[in-house]
Amino acid sequence: MYGFSFDRASSVQDAAAKAANGGQLLAGGQTLLASMKQRLASPETLVDLSGIADLKGICKDGNAMVVGAMTRHQEVATNKELIATIAGLARLAGGIGDRQVRAMGTIGGSVANNDPAACYPSAVLGLGATIKTNKREIAADKFFQGLFTTALEPGEMILSIRFPIPKASAYAKFKQPASRYALLGVFVAQTDSGVRVAVTGGGNGVVRHAGLEAALSKSFSPSAVDGVTVSASEFTSDLHASAEYRAQLLKVQTKRAVHQALGNA
Ligand SMILES: Cc1cc2nc3c(=O)[nH]c(=O)nc-3n(C[C@H](O)[C@H](O)[C@H](O)COP(=O)(O)OP(=O)(O)OC[C@H]3O[C@@H](n4cnc5c(N)ncnc54)[C@H](O)[C@@H]3O)c2cc1C
Q1: In the 3-class helix/strand/coil scheme, how is 186-213 assigned residue by residue?
Q2: Atom 28 of ligand 1, residue of closest alpha carbon
Q3: Measured from the CB, is residue 68 less than 6 Å from ligand 1?
Q4: Which of 117, 180, 227, 237 could form a disulfide with 243 if both were Cys (CB 3.0 to 4.6 A apart)?
């Protein structure tokens, strides 16, 4: 690890000013600190967000649940109102990594990082959430832009994420057993305007699947998945799984997610 200075921000404005000055935001450190140890990242200044109360917590706002950027995975997993309104999101958070990762990692850090096998981006995209930053609001459909890339500008900070409450939702992850990230994960949300399906772990980043969305919007049942054609060309092969295997997993995991969303899990 290289030398760096550590600066604890006292407010959103303070953090934004420090980030605009070249500081790198530090949330749960579960990705950033490991990257620094491996010398993949070498920020001169870390701007710690952990002391900013405005960035923490979960609340209901009209027909949406709003989750602060510095809310840890464990809080999302155990929040009773979230479990009652967006069960798929709470369950997703409870399946991230291990206890330490869930105790430290945050939703803002995960979404900003946009790891192609991370879980949260699939919920954000699958639920059609809105990402609120210190500069603007960004729709999920425009936010995720491929491998570790988002619509965030340098120094821009996520403040919270607003999730519309769906009729039903679920996340089915097939874990890569060593890392516990998604070898393939599917988030399914049934909404008033149709079904949204977001897939993580399949390639360069989270994507929606038009074929599955059309079939499930007609009939929200596991058997509706049978008639959907999924091509291996939609996926990446790596040392963990071939593209053909991931294509097969997509249908299996989508069926599991729908089954769970219908309250059968
Ligand atoms: C062993 C292990 C297993 C894991 N398993 C999983 C898994 O199963 N599923 C999964 O989804 N994830 C998994 N993770 C990743 C975990 O969820 C991390 O918490 C997450 O990737 C990063 O969140 P963080 O809060 O630790 O962010 P940090 O590591 O502190 O920051 C990550 C990046 O986001 C930026 N950032 C942080 N906060 C903000 C903000 N508010 N606005 C803008 N930019 C910001 C930082 O500058 C940095 O570039 C795992 C991690 C580990 C170490």
Answers
A1: EEEEEECCEEEEEEECCCCCCEECHHHH
A2: 29
A3: no
A4: 237
Averaged over 187-200, what is the pLDDT? 96
- Evaluate whether the domain defined by 168-261 bears CATH number 3.40.50.150: no
Does the domain at 1-51 match CATH 3.40.50.300? Answer given as: no
Ligand 1: residue whose CA is nearest its atom 23: 109
DSSP output for 16-29: HHHHHTTPEEESS-
Summarize pLDDT for 70-86 with one digit per residue, the tens: 999 999 999 999 999 99
pTM: 0.97
- The reply to whether ligand 1 has any atom less than 6 angstroms from the CB of 96 is yes
- Is the CB–ligand 1 distance for residue 157 below 6 Å? yes
How much distance in Å is there from the Cα of 133 to the middle of ligand 1?
17
Provide the residue ranges of all domains of the chain, joining segments of one domain with +. Answer: 1-51, 52-164, 168-261
